[in-house]
Amino acid sequence: MQNRFVIIAFYKFARLDDYIQLREVLLAVCKERGILGTILLASEGISAPIPGSRHVIQAFIQNLPYHPGLAGFEDQKL
């Protein structure tokens, strides 16, 4: 059951002054991993419902903390 399809929804209020550059990084990651969905980014945070396999979504979540404003997502379990 490890590759079961899941949908996660999350948001975090955080200062993202570089959200335009962050958009490019997240878009590349999503395209590379085949992640579909909508990620809303603004200078005050992130909000996203994202569907995919458990493995792909977990890897996506674990890679968010590279940005200081997004730390804390990596501890979430699906």
Strand order of the biggest β-sheet: 1-3-2
Summarize the biggest pleated sheet.
Answer: 3 strands, antiparallel
Q: How would you state the average pLDDT, rounded?
A: 83
Q: From N to C, what is the helix and strand string?
A: EHEEH
Structural class: alpha+beta
Low-confidence stretches: none
- Assembly type: single chain
Query: How many β-strand runs?
Result: 3
User: Which descriptor suits the 3D outline?
Assistant: globular
Radius of gyration: 12 Å
Distance between the termini: 12 Å
Number of helical segments with 4 or more residues: 2
The helicity comes to 25-40%
**What is the percentage of strand-forming residues?**
25-35%
Task: Please provide a brief summary of the model.
The protein has 78 residues and is an alpha+beta fold. It has 2 helices and 3 strands, in the order E-H-E-E-H. Helices cover 32% and strands 27% of the residues.
Feature tags:
alpha+beta, 3-stranded antiparallel beta sheet, 2 helices, 27% strand, single chain, 32% helix, 78 residues
Write the layout of secondary structure elements.
Layout: E1 5-13, H1 19-33, E2 40-42, E3 45-53, H2 54-63
Antiparallel strand pairs: 1-3, 2-3
Give a description of the structure.
The model has no long low-confidence stretch (mean pLDDT 83). With 78 residues, the protein is of the alpha+beta class. It is globular. Helices cover 32% and strands 27% of the residues. It starts with a strand and ends in a 15-residue tail after the last helix.
